[in-house]
Recover the amino acids of this structure.
């Protein structure tokens, strides 16, 4: 019987594929390279040691808070601008008031100087006597406009109280007549205001040193005045009188 063992030949060792080892090596090398690259990137982009990382919600909240502060700042600036405008208006008003006050003071000084001048022109007489210093008339429509300046010599102890009367002499229906003229409108300066009563021919007076009175007198229909006599009355006593011839 033939020997089978002599015919069996030994097997050659089977070589393992080397592709798998290479793949593992490549993967390991890639991991190392990636780790090194990541480490270097982290070093290049890392912040300071005390850096704080915020989330998107936190960043949005901070931006909203910043916008709110900016809005408050704009509101405060608007209020400040408004306050500056009000201050400017108040300063302008104060400047205007100071200007008017200076003008009024200058006018008072001028009037006092005029009063002192008029007092020097007054003839010597008892203190408190009244004089008619000026009278003027001009025609205005159906009326007669007048201006009268009254003054007292010296200084009386009490204000003068009396009345002003206007008597006109002229022609009416071809006849010479005298009529008392009634004041329609009156403006008094330097003394108390005078208001004529309806149908009154006397104009009330009350003043200390001087009074400038002007107004409009009513003329009867068809009456042509030629002269006007102005009288200052104290009760029923005539204290001063002046007659003016009309030239119009």
């Amino acid at each position: 019987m033939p020997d089978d063992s002599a015919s069996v030949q030994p097997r050659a060792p089977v070589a393992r594929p080397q592709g798998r080892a290479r793949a593992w090596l490549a993967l390991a090398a890639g991991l190392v390279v990636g780790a090194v690259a990541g480490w270097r990137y982290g070093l290049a982009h890392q912040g300071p040691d005390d850096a704080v990382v915020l989330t998107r919600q936190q960043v949005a909240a901070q931006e909203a808070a910043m916008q709110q502060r900016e809005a408050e700042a704009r509101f405060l600036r608007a209020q400040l601008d408004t306050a500056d405008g009000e201050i400017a208006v108040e300063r302008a008003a104060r400047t205007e008031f100071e200007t008017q006050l200076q003008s009024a003071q200058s006018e008072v000084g001028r009037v006092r100087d005029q009063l002192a001048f008029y007092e020097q022109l007054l003839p010597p007489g008892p203190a408190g006597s009244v004089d008619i210093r000026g009278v003027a008339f001009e025609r205005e429509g159906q009326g007669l406009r007048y201006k009268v300046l009254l003054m007292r010599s010296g200084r009386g102890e009490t204000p003068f109280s009396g009345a002003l009367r206007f008597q006109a002499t002229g022609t009416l229906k071809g006849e010479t007549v005298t009529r008392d003229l009634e004041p329609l409108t009156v403006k008094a300066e330097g003394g108390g205001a005078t208001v004529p009563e309806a149908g009154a021919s006397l104009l009330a007076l009350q003043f200390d040193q001087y009074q400038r009175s002007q107004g409009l007198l009513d003329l009867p229909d068809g009456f042509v005045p030629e002269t006007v006599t102005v009288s200052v009355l104290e009760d029923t006593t005539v204290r001063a009188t002046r007659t003016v011839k009309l030239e119009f």
